[in-house]
């Protein structure tokens, strides 16, 4: 079992090799960096968050607390960005973080009630879905945000950057490679399932209630969050 990240320059070289196998028109893959963090947060705020089912249902808007949490969780800068060759703007992202058995996140310290509701929902079956125990691992690769710029959708970009992330995950230095992710809407769920991920659990929105009330209402065509896992 290996859990030490490879040096940054080796990860960048690995991504360059992967990028040669996946064609993007007038754009290139880039490993995120501290210099890109603010741009990435803006991208998520404008091109991911408005359509995210859970946040939209609760009327949750990204705030300073979210920005701080995002920065802390993504501190290793392992996320993949698709950058326009013409404008240098972010076209798509697949954010990647490392989760560790011994370092679970304490969301009780959060202040925004709506954000707390999302975390409680996503983690309320964690004991049943114990990925660490199931695969006998201490470190898991978490796929978090998958987003495409509004002007570049319906071109297969999300699927391509997802495939690049799968290949990149094998280059991190983590062994064995186990990836976990959630899809809160049918579009992200299709990407996971097309990539051969196993459905670990399905949380139906109509079935999830607190004090007898459905928490996530008016979700339209999106009926559940699915938790996925794949060992490479």
From TrEMBL:
CDD domains: NAT_SF. Residues 78-221 form the N-acetyltransferase domain. Coiled coil: none annotated. InterPro entries: Acyl_CoA_acyltransferase (IPR016181), GNAT_dom (IPR000182). SUPFAM superfamilies: Acyl-CoA N-acyltransferases (Nat) (SSF55729). PROSITE patterns: GNAT. One of its GO terms (molecular function) is N-acetyltransferase activity. This is N-acetyltransferase domain-containing protein. It comes from Mytilus edulis (Blue mussel).
